[in-house]
Amino acid sequence: MSERTILIVGTVDTKEDELNYIAEVIGQQGGAALTMDVSVLGDPSAPTDISKHEVAEAGGSSIKEAIAGEDENLAADGAFAAVMDFAPKSWAITSWAQPSAQDRIV
User: What is the value of pTM for the model shown?
Assistant: First the structure.
């Protein structure tokens, strides 16, 4: 069991293969990964740990409202703002830090 869990945040509707690869590499290195979808339009082929709907709700909105706004970039900005608020409160993350050289997966 890993002492650390890495939160992987991404637009799963367009980057699912890449995000799954990152999670796989983390697992191969003995780490644990938690996936968060911040997509607006598309849906992943398999569920993520935190859905785009949960992220939107944490930001005080919904995916339906984001789509109705007709500006995917603005909706994505809102999703990332929600992530910065949602993740620390939900998983007792106490700090956001850049990884040290020892933390990087090569």
Answer: 0.72
